[in-house]
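Input structure tokens:
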């Protein structure tokens, strides 16, 4: 069974470094939440200037946190 996690930040083996893996996942989640929060606070006009619609916010945050 493969216990390796491949992320934008690198590969981590669950069996060798479970605490480091949990830390990485938590940091990724914080990036996701921060991105969603900050983009959600922008006006529709500001989002349009960036070429982003409200329906894209969660997808963009997921890409930012966990990689494309």
């Amino acid at each position: 069974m493969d216990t390796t996690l491949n992320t934008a930040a690198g590969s981590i083996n669950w069996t060798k470094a479970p605490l480091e893996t949990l830390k990485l996942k938590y940091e990724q989640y914080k990036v996701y939440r921060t991105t969603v929060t900050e983009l959600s606070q922008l006006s529709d006009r500001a989002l349009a200037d960036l070429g982003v619609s409200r329906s894209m916010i969660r997808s963009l945050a997921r890409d930012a946190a966990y990689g494309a």
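Residues 5 and 15 are 10 Å apart (CA to CA). The radius of gyration is 15 Å.
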